[in-house]
Design a protein that fits this description.
The chain is α+β, with helices and mostly antiparallel strands and 474 residues long. The protein has 15 helices and 15 strands. This is 2-oxoglutarate (2OG) and Fe(II)-dependent oxygenase superfamily protein.
């Protein structure tokens, strides 16, 4: 299954993901594998809730429809959402985004919603129960991801809110009750947000999408319309065949950073075509498990488990800064586009020292063999190994160097299947090329780039284009 990938979105029972003491059961290992592979391949998965929880979700959606149906046709000025990143952990109560024809009620424990027109703001029913349910589910999913990545159990707990919250604490995680395209909501008529094509509302183009900054997001809707981009760049309608007690789970930017890029954040968009004749629009429950503001994303657990951590994830990032900073998704998600990021950093980040070093010599000094091997091994990993793993839906989980020296001589080792699937060089430990000795790096490079030699002219790729052409002329 790892070689061919999942034929469709992975579907996992919540009861099979709940861990027990002792050795993992076969159903747990299969569920964790299906969940993780679906998140890697489709950036989403389907979670099946027990019967009683499904009834609670349906009741909450019914309450949401009635709540938004009684709202005014156009929101007041103070209810218009400004999308200020500084307020990422302060949203509470009702607000509207007319440009997307969307209304939202945010429930955040510990924060009282503002009064509406100096009166009591009534909320959809059952939000505390839904928040508690989806919060537990999101943490169970994080524990399953920890197991898949060979991390310690509850390894994400240090960046999550306390359970329960301490006095005067405000939840970083949020439950958003959303309504798209309510026919009685007239706010969108005051904004140029859509065009007409064949009598349908066009709400997005191919380059328009959203990405959550959460660790895990869970979405339950009453009508299909959620599209998520998979690892092949295709948009999939992920909630088209959801059962009454099923919900969609997808990873966010915080998980992408905390796992050093092992789980790409889901690019998603909502289609509201064919909802004009519907009385209530499209209602959904969206729970976002967020890291707490007074913490940092550091990838320390990934390093402790022996995973390779790229330079872009090496430094800890305060969560509050992470939430307020813009993250261009085209640079985050396209691994091939950043395969030479070390070369660009050398050119752009240290131009003055480089110029000073080359002032007295028309040719730059060759790199030491160890430095050249390290850079070339990193390039080969990015361009060859990662490409093979992505095409086969495999997430690379590197071993510890000392432990893997024994793994390569056994057939039932933890990394045996992955090494066989991607054609890892025989006799080379399955660790990040940065961690390999130079002699092992040679075998690694020769396996993935036949004909490569240590005399490969790497220095030309490290110079500016003008200097490279001058060297060629000389």
């Amino acid at each position: 299954m790892a070689g061919n990938g999942l034929p469709s979105l992975g579907r996992v029972k919540l009861t099979d993901l709940v861990p027990d003491e002792g050795l993992p059961s076969d159903s747990y290992k299969l569920s964790v594998s299906t969940l993780s592979q679906s998140l890697a391949q489709y950036s989403a998965a389907i979670i099946q809730f027990p019967m009683s929880d499904g009834a609670l979700l349906r009741a909450a959606l019914d309450s949401a429809r009635l709540y938004f149906h009684q709202k005014p046709s156009y929101p007041s000025a103070d209810m218009i959402h400004t999308n200020d990143p500084r307020d990422w952990c302060k949203t509470s109560g009702y607000y509207a985004d007319p440009s997307l024809w969307q209304e939202t009620y945010d429930y955040r424990p510990g924060l009282t919603p503002p009064d509406s027109n100096n009166g009591m703001e009534f909320s959809p029913a059952g939000l505390p129960d839904i928040f508690a349910l989806l919060g537990k589910v999101a943490r169970v999913i994080l524990d399953a991801i920890s197991f898949f990545l060979n991390l310690r159990s509850s390894s994400f707990s240090k960046i999550l809110d306390n359970v329960p919250l301490r006095p005067r604490e405000i939840s970083s995680s949020v439950l958003s009750v959303c309504c798209h395209a309510r026919p009685s909501f007239q706010g969108a008529q005051h904004h140029n947000f859509a065009t007409q094509e064949d009598g349908q509302l066009v709400m997005f183009s191919d380059h328009e999408h959203q990405v959550d900054k959460s660790l895990i997001s869970l979405v339950k809707s009453d009508k299909a319309g959620l599209h998520i981009k998979d690892c092949q760049g295709h948009w999939n309608l992920v909630d088209e065949v959801l059962g009454p007690q099923e919900a969609i789970v997808y990873p966010g930017l915080a998980l992408y950073h905390e796992t050093a890029g092992y789980f790409n954040p889901a690019l998603h968009r909502t289609d509201i075509n064919n909802l004009q004749s519907n009385l209530f629009g499209r209602c959904s429950l969206a729970f976002k498990l967020m890291p707490k503001s007074m913490s940092s994303l550091s990838c320390s657990e990934m390093r402790a488990a022996g995973h390779g951590v790229d330079a872009q994830f090496q430094l800890p990032v305060p969560v509050d800064d992470f939430m307020q900073k813009a993250h261009p998704t085209d640079q985050l998600l396209n691994r091939n586009s950043v395969s030479n990021f070390n070369f660009n950093a050398t050119q752009e980040g240290s131009t003055k020292p480089t110029t000073r070093r080359r002032k007295n010599d028309s040719r730059s000094k060759p790199l030491p063999p160890s430095k050249r091997l390290r850079l070339e091994a990193q390039r080969v990993l990015k361009e060859r190994v990662q490409d093979i793993a992505d095409k086969k839906g495999i997430k690379l989980r590197f071993c510890n160097l000392k432990e893997c020296e024994n793994h390569i001589h056994t057939l039932d080792s933890p990394c045996a299947n992955i090494r066989m699937e991607i054609g890892w060089p025989p006799g080379v430990p399955f660790v990040h090329p940065h961690d390999l000795p130079n002699k092992a790096k040679m075998g690694f490079l020769e396996a993935y780039e036949p004909g490569w030699s240590a005399t490969h002219d790497m220095e030309l790729s490290l110079t500016e284009p003008g200097q490279a052409s001058q060297h060629t002329a000389n």
